[in-house]
Automatic annotation (TrEMBL):
<protein>
    <recommendedName>
        <fullName>Disease resistance R13L4/SHOC-2-like LRR domain-containing protein</fullName>
    </recommendedName>
</protein>
<dbReference type="InterPro" id="IPR032675">
    <property type="entry name" value="LRR_dom_sf"/>
</dbReference>
<dbReference type="InterPro" id="IPR003591">
    <property type="entry name" value="Leu-rich_rpt_typical-subtyp"/>
</dbReference>
<dbReference type="InterPro" id="IPR055414">
    <property type="entry name" value="LRR_R13L4/SHOC2-like"/>
</dbReference>
<keyword id="KW-0433">Leucine-rich repeat</keyword>
<feature type="domain" description="Disease resistance R13L4/SHOC-2-like LRR">
    <location>
        <begin position="184"/>
        <end position="313"/>
    </location>
</feature>
<keyword id="KW-0677">Repeat</keyword>
<dbReference type="Pfam" id="PF23598">
    <property type="entry name" value="LRR_14"/>
</dbReference>
<dbReference type="InterPro" id="IPR001611">
    <property type="entry name" value="Leu-rich_rpt"/>
</dbReference>
């Protein structure tokens, strides 16, 4: 079967590794790639891992009743999969269930009782309408990814008992606001949510003060939530371990002052926020910042205050079409993104804009006014590499 010789004639497979239970038996999608006539797949006994990633002919999963020892089930990219057999809901040994990009999946058990489940990935299941109810005994779940489940509107209330949940991704769902019980997840490290591009209001704004209680958060993504500068509470500084914050697609006049208290923050994304100024906010509090993304905004200049960010490696200013000048930047800078900055004319002290290392780059495509500037040409010649 591993050599795929004669597999195009196979119509049924029964896998029973009872006699060799000590051996690892893996099923991968490529072993089934030529089985166009396969109608029966029955799993027995000690099977622990099944990987059918990308198996395009799979429409329904097999009955898992006899696969009670299954620990990892990967059906990622099975784009024609419509139904998951109800027996999957009681696989008590299952730890990882990956159904990513099963875009035709409509049917899923209404209640799941996978006591040992740690990772549930349903991202990209765009036809799935309902997230299943969770049995109260499921208390080991660490990762739940529903991103791209456009039709899912609610989460199971029993999810509040998942005290060990570490990652929750609700981006591109029909869920209008994060459920209030998420603030009980003291182990939550990654939270992703997005909003108003599909007509949502800023109903998430009143919830923001409660985020400070999620003291274990490392990554927080609240894109397109129609947030304004005043919506970011001062006590966001309670997220003392936060390393990545993505607030792109919101509405800020400038960098919200309350963000400058996040001393452990390494990545800040404020792209497409309609910012007309970066202001002179006291940003030295962002002492750990390494990557700053400010693409698609409307400010004209970049403040000298950025030189205070001594660890900054990348500043992204692509498509800031009103930006007309760039000051000296911290000597730590390795990459500057300026694509589409069509009004950019002045680069202050080109040799000091950044202390470019060999592997770094300035990206300045379609900066037509900059090309006409002699200082810019000097800078480009300095870093031009000829093979």
């Amino acid at each position: 079967m591993l050599n795929k010789n004669g597999t195009e004639m196979i119509e049924g497979i029964i896998i029973d590794n009872k006699r060799e239970s000590s051996k690892m038996f893996n099923l991968r999608a490529d072993a089934f790639s030529k089985m166009k006539k396969l109608r029966l797949l029955k799993l027995l006994c000690k099977l622990k891992m099944m990987d059918l990633e990308g198996f395009q002919n799979l429409i329904k999963t097999p009955d898992f009743t006899t696969a009670s020892n299954l620990e990892v089930l990967t059906l990622k990219g099975c784009t024609k999969l419509v139904d998951v057999h109800p027996s999957i809901a009681v696989l008590k040994s299952l730890k990882v269930l990956n159904l990513k990009d099963c875009k035709s999946l409509r049917s899923f058990p209404t209640i799941i009782r996978m006591e040992y489940l740690e990772t549930l990935i349903l991202s990209g299941c765009s036809s799935l309408v309902r997230f299943p109810e969770i049995d109260g005994k499921m208390k080991r779940l660490k990762t739940l990814d529903l991103s791209g489940c456009y039709r899912v509107e609610n989460l199971s209330e029993n999810l509040q008992h998942e005290k060990f949940l570490e990652e929750l991704d609700l981006t591109e769902t029909a869920i209008t606001e994060p459920p209030s019980f998420i603030f009980q997840f003291k182990n939550l490290k990654v939270l992703s949510f997005n909003g108003c591009k599909r007509g949502r209001t800023n109903s998430i704004a009143p919830m923001l003060p409660s985020f400070s209680g999620l003291s274990s958060l490392r990554e927080l993504k609240l894109r397109d939530c129609n947030l304004c500068e005043g919506d970011i509470p001062p006590d966001i500084s309670g997220l003392s371990f936060l390393k990545e914050l993505d607030l792109s697609g919101n509405n800020f006049v400038s960098i919200p002052a309350s963000l400058t208290r996040l001393s452990k923050l390494e990545v800040l994304i404020l792209s497409n926020c309609n910012m007309c100024t970066l202001g002179e906010a006291d940003i030295h509090g962002l002492s750990s910042l390494k990557w700053l993304y400010l693409n698609d905004n409307n400010f004209i200049t970049v403040p000298l205050a950025l030189t205070q960010l001594s660890k900054l490696k990348l500043i992204a200013l692509s498509n800031c079409m009103k930006l007309n000048s760039l000051p000296e930047l911290p000597t730590s800078i390795e990459d500057v993104w300026l694509e589409g900055c069509s009004s950019l004319e002045v680069v202050a002290s080109p040799s000091k804009v950044c202390n470019l290392v060999d592997s770094a780059a300035i990206r300045a495509f379609n900066c037509f006014k900059l090309v006409e500037n002699m200082n810019a040409l000097t800078l480009l010649r300095k870093h031009l590499k000829v093979d």
